[in-house]
Design brief:
Elements: H1 2-17, E1 18-24, H2 26-29, H3 36-47, E2 51-58, H4 62-74, E3 79-83, H5 94-102, E4 106-108, H6 110-121, H7 130-134, E5 137-139, E6 143-145, E7 154-159, E8 162-167, H8 171-190, E9 194-203, H9 207-220, E10 224-234, E11 237-248, H10 251-271, E12 275-278
Parallel strand pairs: 1-2, 1-3, 3-8
Antiparallel strand pairs: 4-5, 6-7, 7-8, 9-11, 9-12, 10-11
């Protein structure tokens, strides 16, 4: 009985930190646009203690968007962050896909209409045309979030244990809304968290030579994530970067774990006739 309770507690803690990201847009699938939004979101999430499990890119198709969202819900992601497809044009279909995935109707949200009226009244008193009204038509149980930079409101909705945020694809808008609405909630839900990172730059040692030493250091330091990154050759000298990351509720402990792992790695590199320096 005790083991079951313990396992459930661990599962709930992991789920609380579990984040999936869905990026919507044909331009991402064709390679026309780099998916910088997902990279930026993943970095912000990781820095506050979230664990990004999966990043998905999907085109501007309602069924594909809905299928991707259902997949995240089946995997019991604690958080789902979607970007792209909230605009006024025919191919902005993210909210339609979200409504289909959740089994909710799309409805004209009065709060979102007010947000849009305020935005467009500042631009030569522009009227709310049908394409603009489209941006205020959201899943029935969803809540619109003010867009401080652009026009299309973001959307938040809870489904079971998953909190879903849908953000505009325009980077400046996405970043502003993330900072205002998502980051504070993530920090509060995840709680006290410290993540420290550092890197070693090594020379005169190939990754294949380093591998067994790396295995030993990893085994001795389970609280530190260690990863080697080959940087090729420069003037006939092999170069590697080795990254170290440690998560903890205490900065003092995180530093202690990092120092131990880095010290062992430096000694291993010396033993293998290589050189290393922190960068």
């Amino acid at each position: 009985m005790v083991k079951v309770i313990s396992t459930n507690i661990i599962a709930l803690f992991v789920r609380k930190r579990s984040v999936e990201i869905i990026s919507v847009g044909n331009e991402l699938l064709t390679g026309h646009t780099l998916n910088t939004n997902a990279s930026w979101i993943a970095k912000q999430v990781t820095d506050v203690g979230g664990i990004v499990k999966i990043v998905t890119i999907v085109g501007d198709e309602i069924d594909e968007i809905a299928s991707s969202i259902r997949g995240s819900l089946r995997r019991k992601a604690g958080w789902l962050i979607i970007s792209g497809g909230l605009g006024p044009t025919y191919d902005d279909k993210t909210l339609q896909g979200l409504a289909r995935a959740l089994g909710q109707e799309l409805v004209l949200n009065k709060e979102a209409v007010v947000m849009l009226k305020r935005k467009y009244s500042k631009i030569l008193n522009l009227e709310l045309t049908a394409p603009r009204i489209k941006m205020a038509t959201i899943p029935a149980r969803a809540k619109p979030l003010h867009n401080p930079v652009g026009h299309a409101p973001a959307v938040m909705v809870t489904h079971g244990s998953c909190t879903i945020f849908v953000l505009p694809g325009v980077p400046k808008e996405m970043m502003a809304i993330f900072a205002k609405y998502i980051l504070p909630v993530l920090k509060r839900k995840i709680g006290k968290f410290v993540r420290l990172e550092t890197n070693l730059e090594t020379t005169n040692i190939m990754e294949s030579v380093l591998a067994p030493y790396l295995d030993r250091v990893v085994a001795n330091n389970p609280k530190v994530y260690i990863k080697s990154h080959p940087r090729g050759y420069s003037r006939g000298v092999s170069r590697l970067h080795i990254s170290f990351a440690c998560e903890s509720s205490s900065r003092r402990l995180a530093r202690k774990y990092l120092r131990k792992a880095i010290g062992e790695m430096k000694q291993s590199i010396i033993d293998a006739d290589g050189k290393a320096r922190e960068i």
